[in-house]
Amino acid sequence: MRSDNVTRGVxxxxxxxxxxxxxxxxxxxxxxxxxxxxxxxEIVPGHMNLDKIAEAVKAGVxxxxxxxxxxxxxxxxxxxxxxxxxxxxxxxxxDLIADSTEAMAMAHQFDGLVMIPNxxxxxxxxxxxxxxxxxxxxxxxxxxxxxxxxxxxxxxxxSHMFEAVGSY
Length: 168
Known about the structure:
This protein has helices at residues 4-7, 13-21, 26-29, 50-63, 78-81, 93-108, 122-133, 158-167; strands at 33-38, 67-72, 112-116, 137-139, 148-149, 155-156. By secondary structure, the chain is α/β, with parallel strands linked by helices. The protein has a domain at 31-143: 3-Layer(aba) Sandwich (Rossmann fold). A four-stranded parallel beta sheet has the order 2-1-3-4, sandwiched between helices. Strands 5-6 form a two-stranded antiparallel sheet. Strand 3, helix 7 and strand 4 form a beta-alpha-beta unit. Helix 6 (93-108) packs parallel to helix 7 (122-133). It is elongated and about 70 Å long.
């Protein structure tokens, strides 16, 4: 396993001590280390449910005999970043996501990855990272963001808001 580079042998005792400091057990370090990269955060509405998906993924990794290690992927909400200097930062997040995920996967020698993205920058950024690291990788999408409702019960969505602003 790739993770043997950070978990096995006398020369890796310092590495193991850091895993132990994180709460991992000897048994967990003998299993494949599976990076679970999740773009959950509290600023992108389409990512609000991803923490729950990550918990289910980690339970599945454990049930399959692996040791899950979760780490985040950044995300910018285009809708919030739109119309000001913030939009300058949206597109470049693809490369930041790819670079940082590659760095985490290679630095920690994960045996496999599960990626939990949503939105149009995180999915390609994580796909780019998966291609670069070339280790077994599974994608679990958070799915579409549900539309909301108005006080009178009519369904509405972000597109309706943009159209309303344009009409105004």
